[in-house]
Structure formats: structure tokens, C-alpha cells
Design goal:
Blueprint (H helix, E strand, L loop, with lengths): L4 H9 L5 H29 L5 H6 L2
Length: 60
């Protein structure tokens, strides 16, 4: 009986050489989420003509 696609993925992803790569992908996804969240806040402040408050948001 053949392994399913998920089983093959988990078999490959949990090999010791691939664990750092998976961790890196999770870290990159988290950093991208933080960047997009900040981008949305800064865009909102720009639309509200509160550009001077962007710096205050960045140093929180």
C-alpha cells in the first residue's frame, strides 16, 4: 500500500536535515505577518493625515 501525499510530506519534513528549513519558513511567515500588520496601521494613519504619529507607532 502506498503512502498518501500527507504521509510522504511528513516523512520528508521531519527528517533532521529539513527541520531547520521548516522552522525558518515559520519564522519568515511570522515576520511577514508583523510587517503587513504594521503596513496596514501606517497606511491608516497616512489616510487620516496623521503622518507624525507613524514614528510613535514604530517605537512602541
Amino acid at each position: 500500500m502506498e503512502n498518501s501525499g500527507l504521509e510522504n510530506f511528513l516523512l520528508i519534513a521531519t527528517k533532521p536535515d529539513n527541520i531547520p528549513i521548516g522552522t525558518m519558513l515559520l519564522f519568515v511567515a511570522f515576520v511577514m505577518w508583523v510587517a503587513i500588520k504594521q503596513m496596514v496601521v501606517h497606511d491608516r494613519l497616512i489616510k487620516e493625515n496623521k503622518k507624525e504619529k507613524i514614528w510613535d507607532e514604530m517605537i512602541k
